[in-house]
């Protein structure tokens, strides 16, 4: 919610910049949620405002839910592009693997099949086996590669996102 409003403000006025020098809503949400957490925790500890503790805790819970919903919407949007990237890479790798496997299997079968079978039969079998095995293996490997790439890229990008957020928070508190 807040990130969408922030993005609309940024689109209308290009001179507006975020706290970390970027308009990426994840930094804004993280900064606002940490700021609200610190601010509300200080006021919850303060002894003169005990009657409003329930009100502040409800407000804190509401703002945390609001920021987490906005952050989850943004991350789902990012995961959409990540899935497209993993599908593209798996298709590219399956095409590459099918070409590579067909060449490799045709050479391998053309060398070893004539020792056991007649030449006519070995040529036919080497061609057909190399084509069918390469297609089968490329389909089989592309499925596993797409699953592996999607898991690997999601873990890698989430760790990278955490490291960037941690670095920006540390650099913000140093200065």
Automatic annotation (TrEMBL):
Organism: Dreissena polymorpha (Zebra mussel)
TM segment ranges: 26-47, 59-81, 87-109, 121-141, 147-169
Name of the protein: Uncharacterized protein
UniProt-listed InterPro entries: Plasmodium_CSP_Invasion
Assigned keywords, A-Z: Membrane, Transmembrane, Transmembrane helix
Keyword Lipid metabolism among record annotations: no
């Amino acid at each position: 919610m807040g990130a969408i409003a922030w993005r609309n403000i940024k689109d209308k006025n290009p001179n507006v910049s975020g706290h970390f020098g970027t308009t990426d809503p994840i930094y804004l949400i993280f900064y606002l949620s940490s700021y609200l957490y610190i601010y509300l925790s200080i006021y919850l500890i303060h002894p003169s405002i005990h009657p409003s503790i329930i009100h502040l805790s409800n407000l804190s819970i509401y703002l945390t839910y609001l920021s987490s919903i906005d952050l989850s919407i943004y991350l789902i949007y990012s995961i959409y592009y990540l899935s497209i990237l993993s599908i593209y890479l798996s298709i590219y790798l399956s095409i590459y693997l099918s070409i590579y496997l067909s060449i490799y299997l045709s050479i391998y079968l053309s060398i070893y099949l004539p020792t056991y079978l007649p030449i006519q039969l070995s040529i036919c079998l080497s061609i057909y086996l190399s084509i069918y095995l390469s297609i089968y293996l490329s389909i089989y490997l592309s499925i596993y590669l797409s699953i592996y790439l999607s898991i690997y890229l999601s873990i890698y990008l989430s760790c990278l996102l955490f490291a960037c957020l941690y670095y920006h928070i540390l650099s913000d508190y140093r200065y």
